[in-house]
Structures are given as structure tokens and as C-alpha cells.
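ok so for the tutorial part 2 we go from a plain amino acid sequence to predicted C-alpha cells. step 1 is just haveing the sequence, like this:
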Amino acid sequence: MASTFDPDSFGFLLTDVTRMLRAEMDRRTGEAGLGLTPGEGRTLSHAYRAGGVRQNVLAERMGVEAMTLSGALDRLEARGLVERRADPEDRRAKTVHLTPAGEAMLEQIQPIAAAMRADAANAVPADAWRNFVEVLKTVRANLAAMRVDPCRKDGAA
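step 2 — the prediction. this is what the C-alpha cells look like for a chain of 157 residues:
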């Protein structure tokens, strides 16, 4: 049987690049001596990006289990980098917020991430890189539009 399997398909390439970016970022932040685990660094970045969302939403956006996130948040909260607040819409739920110390930590991480992006884009013309990022945003929007909203009765997104 002839195979039409492409090891360089979009999904494999995206997975490989994501894995390699994470590993390189983990290496660089570790070398910087920031005292964060890779998961804690990602949690800070995602918490900043999400801007005060519930823990379960943050876990979903990060692609991790709620218990995994809870452990990272416990450690970050103990260091004063994040705080959990009661959700005003549901007092049983908690929202995650960066503290000023958490924002300062992200300011230390930002140049590391910028240097890594520059290294990853090495030899890629600036216009091609900008186009690449725009294409990824379009793909993300397309995939987000495919998500089914459970509140809609017709099953449409």
C-alpha cells in the first residue's frame, strides 16, 4: 500500500516548532536564573495575556489540566507573582491576576523571548516573517470559529 503520509504536513510542522520553541525558551529562562520552572513561566505569560480569567479558563487556554495549573499557581502565589481573587460572578470560582512583582518578572522574561524569536526568524526576510505571523493568526481565527458553542441550540459556532 502506497503511503500518502507527509511527515512535513502542517500539523507535524506546527507541533515540532512548538515543542522546539518551548524547549529553547525553557533552556534560556533556566540559564537566566529567574528561579521559575518552565510551567511557571508559561503560566505567568498566559495569565498576563488572559487578563484576570478564571483558573479553569486559563488551564484550557494553556492546554493543561486544572490540577497542573493549580500547582503552578500555588507556587507563583507563594512568591507573590500572582494572586487569586474571588470571581465577582461566582464566589466559588477564582480569577488569576498578576501582581506588580509578576509583571516585573515578565519584564525580565520578555527580552529572552524576543531574542529567541529573533534567532528563530534568522535568515527569514522580515516581510516573510510578518506574513507568516499574519497567516498563523488567520489559521487560529479559523480554528476558533470551528469551536462549537454549547449554548447554541443549532450547534453552530
